[in-house]
Aspartate/glutamate racemase family protein
Amino acid sequence: MGVSDIGEPLTGELPELPRSTRRVAFVDSGLGLLGYADALHALRPDLGLVLSLDPDNMPYGPRTPDEVQRLILASARATLPFEPDAVVVACNTASVHGLGALRAELEPHVPVIGTVPAIRPAAASGGPVAVWATAATTSSDYLRGLVDAFAADVETHAVAALGLAEAIESGDEQAIEESIAYAASHTPAGVRSLVLGCTHYGLVVDRILAALEEGVTVHDSPVAVARQTLRRIGLEPDATAPHAGVEAVLLSSRPGRLPESWASYPAGRRLLAAPATGRPAGTSH
């Protein structure tokens, strides 16, 4: 997300939000959090959403573990004035390197929920399994550990979807198609299950499926993470609850707005159409 995507701020200063609203904060380097916020909004539309992105420092994949931990702590701390009931780390890299530090700092007062590629359910459905992820994740001890723990007896292939997260972030349609085609060409024939190992990829899941053989089942984490978030804050799903919506957007800890570029993705369009009660999306207070 470039500077041109930021536009006028949704909030010039931290807003006075209604204290009766329960809310959940989502943190990620970029747009990967959209699918996770959208999944929670579908299950509990009455929860206010605080979205904390880090365009100044994304992507996190090439950064050192210490850098990622420092950055995700800063993004999460920026949400605390909004008094979130929980913080969701909607980023695989940040969950690996920052989840422990976040939980040590925020829990038990504020539950912290991380994201893990859905290798266990994919393996349970039988192989072969492919895991699309960033180049850094495909070669990581973290991914190897997940495969050893949950898919040791299942044929599993790690596939680097080179440039896909960056293309999704920039909204470059041609680059998205080229990155998907590249990853599809490196996915072995006969794969039955595909695990999305980066939170960005779910934003283009329809295009990913179109590039693969028929009969491939995609496994992603947003709904599971949303359900876990509700369990941690003591709520049941209720899709009929009154609508709240996006109450604040933070860009590298600065108050920002809902970027129009989100409309490129179904989850983004739904969030753009889900402003907080009485507050049109993208308008200042």
